[in-house]
Amino acid sequence: MELEVLKSIGAALAIGLGALGPGIGIGILAGKAMEAIGRNPEASQKVQTSMILAIAFAEAIAIYALVVALIIKFV
């Protein structure tokens, strides 16, 4: 019983802390992209493309944290 509780706490910490970094990073990234588009609207297509690519990489880190949390929980 105690092992299951510890696994649940470990999984919760893994996904919670693992999603914190990418969440903050995506927020900063989107804010800076909006600033860049505001300063130079002609470059909005290039900025948007780079922003979406960077968001995909940040989300991949959160998915790794989810996988680790699932492994902790069910193994």
Walkthrough of the structure:
It is a multi-pass membrane protein. It is found in: Cell membrane; Membrane. InterPro entries: ATP_synth_csu_bac/chlpt, ATP_synth_F0_csu, ATP_synth_F0_csu_DDCD_BS, ATP_synth_F0_csu_sf, ATPase_proteolipid_c-like_dom, F/V-ATP_Csub_sf. Keywords: ATP synthesis, Cell membrane, CF(0), Hydrogen ion transport, Ion transport, Lipid-binding, Membrane, Transmembrane, Transmembrane helix, Transport. Residues 9-72 form the V-ATPase proteolipid subunit C-like domain. By secondary structure, the protein is mostly helical. It has a single domain (2-74), classed as F1F0 ATP synthase subunit C (F1FO ATP Synthase). Helices cover 92% and strands 0% of the residues. It has 2 helices and no strands. Helix 1 (2-39) packs antiparallel against helix 2. The radius of gyration is 17 Å and the shape is rod-shaped. The relative contact order is 0.18.
